Amino acid sequence: MDPKPEKRQRDAEATQARILAAAKKEFARNGLGGARIDEIAERAKANKRMIYHYFGNKEDLFRIVLEEAYLDIRAAEKKLDLEHLPAREAMERFVRFTWEYYLKNPEFVTLVNSENLHRARHLKKSERVGPAQRQLVSMVEGILNRGVAEGVFRPGIDPVQLNITIAAVNYYYLTNRYTGTLLFERDMMAKEALDARIAFNIDTILRMICIEP
Predict the structure, then answer these.
(1) Mean pLDDT of 75-90
(2) Integer Cα distance of 3 and 8 in angstroms
(3) pLDDT in tens, 10-30
């Protein structure tokens, strides 16, 4: 068997992965308008022709990077295996995971900010993000239902509203850390401040949904 087609396939996949990684950094740093294809090509050790061949124009590349960012966090959430935990423990782990993911993946937060400036124009074209997002809502709904059955959560909580709140209490702190550090006169990114914040976030969410916090 001729190994060359297989090698070419591996090389193509490796090149695409490098382009996406470089594009993620460039878009996160400069947004869609400020990002430069030349910079992405240089960082990915590829040429512009390859980028256009694999991903189309800059807008298409941004959409794919954004899709991958959302799919990555959804895939990481599925790996938590929360359905096998008691509901309260599962919810605490989910809130903590969201916080830690935002901390470890600042590009995700920046990309989401950028897409909101574009009024979700690129996500509207995606056929992949919607199903993954619905799985997230279903997962949280399952935890809530299990908590009601276990007698620890209040009934009637909207899983979409809860998802929004969990994202908000984690997301806002990090996106406003520079102004917050100045205005509240504390280092919001110091370890003790981060530890105190995630403890506060978990306590806040559990008080919202638990019969007895």
Answers:
(1) 96
(2) 9
(3) 778 899 999 999 999 999 999
As a whole number of angstroms, the distance between CA 82 and CA 40 comes to: 37
Angle at 178 (CA atoms; ends 177, 184), nearest 5 degrees? 75
Q: Which tokens in the block code for residue 105?
A: 């993946």
Tens digits of per-residue pLDDT, 98-123? Answer: 999 999 999 999 999 999 999 999 99
Cβ-count burial 26-38 (b if 16+ within 10 Å, e if not): bbbeebbeebebe
Residue 189 · residue 177 · CB < 8 Å: yes
**Best CA proximity match to 27, nearest among 43, 16, 13, 14:** 43
DSSP letters, the chain, are ---HHHHHHHHHHHHHHHHHHHHHHHHHHHHHHH--HHHHHHHHT--HHHHHHHH-SHHHHHHHHHHHHHHHHHHHHHTT-GGGS-HHHHHHHHHHHHHHHHHH-HHHHHHHHHHHHTTTTTGGG-SSHHHHHHHHHHHHHHHHHHHHHHT-B-TT--HHHHHHHHHHHHHHHHHTHHHHHHHTTS-TTSHHHHHHHHHHHHHHHHHHHBS--
| Nearest-angstrom CA–CA distance, 64 and 24 | 10
* Gap between the Cα atoms of 35 and 92, Å rounded: 37
